[in-house]
Design brief:
By secondary structure, this protein is of the alpha+beta class. Helix content is 28%, strand content 40%.
Length: 146
């Protein structure tokens, strides 16, 4: 197993949807519960989001077989609508998500401070899997709303 890094990790994707729609799907709890999981054996049965500076969010992430669950939560430190979101996790780690319009597409880049329990590769893979799931869900929602 490789060591963890103290350098921030970035994952990114390009979503085939306009930035306003991508932002809505990223931030609205009615959508978050559909995309916020890294694999099909996990889900997010609960999401609460107070999207403003000093607002809080909580997403309950759970194994579908009921064996494990935890709350992923933080406090927003900056919200720039349709451009970026920054927050601090409960353990003090920082996260920033940038939304970059690219004509009728949106680049989503998520940069986060790593934790010390899991390898950098494992963390990158997990966050990328959630971001890939977001892209898949957002494109389905966007295509059905046209």
């Amino acid at each position: 197993m490789s060591a963890t890094s103290s350098s921030p990790i970035t994952v990114e994707t390009v979503v085939n949807a306009h930035v306003e729609k991508v932002w809505e799907i990223w931030t609205d709890p009615k959508h978050i519960v559909h995309w916020n999981n890294a694999s099909d054996d996990w889900h997010t049965p609960y999401a609460e989001n107070d999207l403003r500076k000093d607002g809080k969010f909580t997403y309950t992430m759970a194994a579908k077989n009921g064996s494990f669950k935890f709350d992923f939560e933080g406090v927003y430190t900056n919200v720039d609508e349709h451009r970026s979101i920054e927050y601090a996790l409960g353990d003090g780690r920082k996260v920033k998500i940038d939304f970059t319009p690219m004509d009728d597409k949106t680049k989503v880049a998520e940069t986060f401070d790593p934790e010390n329990e899991n390898s950098t590769e494992m963390q990158r893979a997990g966050w990328q899997a959630i971001l890939d799931n977001f892209k898949k869900y957002a494109e389905i929602v966007f295509s059905t709303s046209l």
